[in-house]
Amino acid sequence: MWATFPINAAFTCFSVALPLYVLSIKGNVLDITNLFAVYNLVSIPAFVIWGAAIDRMRRRRFFYGLSFAGCGLVFAAMFLTASIPVLFLMVSLLGVSIAASGPISALLTMELIEKKHWYTALGRLYFIATGGSALGSLVGVVWPGSIPVGYLLLFCSFTSIASLVVTYAVVRDPPMTLEVASLPPARSGRSVGSPSSISSRLLLVVTVPIRSFSRDGVKRAYKGFRSGLMEGRNLLFFSGFFYMTGYAVLNMSYVAFLSGRGVSNPVIFGIAFSNVIFQLGAFALVSYLAARLSGLKLGLYSILLTAFTFGVMGVAAVSLTGPSLVITNLLFFSLSGAGFALWTAWTSLALFSNLESQGQAGVLGSYNALIGLGTVLGSVVSGVISFYVGYSVTFLASSGVLLVSTELLRRASRIMRFVGGPGQAQ
Question: What pTM, to 2 d.p., does this model score?
Answer without folding.
Answer: 0.83
